[in-house]
Amino acid sequence: MYISCLIALYLPLLSATLPHNNNTTDTCKEYKISEVIQLDDENNLIGYPRYTIDEVNNFILTDQQGHNVKIYDAKGNYVSTFGRRGKGPGDFEHPQHSIRNQDKIHTVTIDGILTTWDIHTKHIYNISDLPLFGVNYMELLNDSLMVIDGRIVDGNKQIDNHLMHLVDLNENKILDSFFPEPEEYLPYRHVAQSMPGLINFKVIDDKIIINYGLSSDLYIYKLAENKVKFDSIQQIKPPEDFKNILELDVSDLMDRWTAFSKFSHINKASILNNGKIAIQVRQYGVIDQTERRTSVSYSLYQYDTNTKQHCLVSNDGILVHTDGKRLFVMDESDYAIIYVYKEIKNED
Fold first, then answer.
1. Within the chain, what is the greatest distance between any pair of CA atoms?
2. What's the CATH number for 31-343?
């Protein structure tokens, strides 16, 4: 049975002009662009960013190339920058994600260094070294609990196959590790590099929706009553006709070049307010084996759990945030441009 209140984050791939939906009968009609936000980056160049939008619509941008965190207000005006490349207090080496908790910002690096700092004063409250590597993303459950991805390591050695972790922010320690890497994909982990290990997840109340990089299934975990561990409660398989969109057979991963030329997978999954599933697919184009380059495109589909039908929302742009009603989509060709999609009633 499909959970009735499931929907995923938006990720269309935008050009410098307004993005567009395919003009077909299968195009979703529930959303339109209500606003275009241009971040003020003339003197604050943005590298490769990961966005969070807080409760007052500030843009918290973790710049992985700039090794810092930039704050912009709801209109896109630059406010401040925190951090620089380095290993001292307030420095970052490849920061991956930042989230706001009241006036505190939590910023995590790829190797599990978690820095908590004040959004106004930039005072550093705490720096924790979690035994994780390959950290990509984190989300708050409440003021004291956080969920974070990554592999548990001891030095350079991986010592556990669980990919999700419940962290106590008061004691700065891992309470529970869950979501073991699906065994059927273990033989391919080192063939196509980052593909098998890619994790995406979204917290909704006391539940987490997870999808593994090579699997088309969605996994649902729920926080136990004692709030110190997560239990698996459901595995959701996509509709059969949607599987046709995913072109790669897992066995193709044994040939690295074939994998990078054919690979497509579900890249994002999350929940909105209209009771539907939105699924973003990332697809690699044909690779040039001489220069080793490949194109990447994104498509967003919406799946109705009642009618069991899906439609194309957009094939332009990258979803960076949703507040349940609006979808914030980044222009892939210009990271400083954000398109805001707003849900509307179907005029038909």
1. 59
2. 2.120.10.30
pLDDT digits (tens, 9 = 90+) for 182-226: 776 666 666 655 455 567 788 888 888 888 766 777 888 999 988
Identify residue 103 by its one-letter amino acid code. Answer: D
What string of H, E and C letters represents the secondary structure of 64-121?
CCCCEEEEECCCCCEEEEECEECCCCCEECCEEEEEEECCEEEEEECCCEEEEEECCC
Q: Based on the number of CB atoms within 10 Å of its own CB, is 227 exposed (0-12), middle (13-18) or buried (19 or more)?
A: middle
Per-residue b or e along 25-58, where b marks 16 or more CB atoms closer than 10 Å to that residue's CB: eeebebbeeeeebebebeebebeebbbbbbeebb
Structure tokens belonging to residue 309: 């039908």
**Which residue's structure tokens are 């989230």?**
99
| pTM flag (> 0.85) | no
- Per-chain mean pLDDT for the chain: 78
Percent of the chain with pLDDT over 90: 34
Rg (CA), the chain: 20
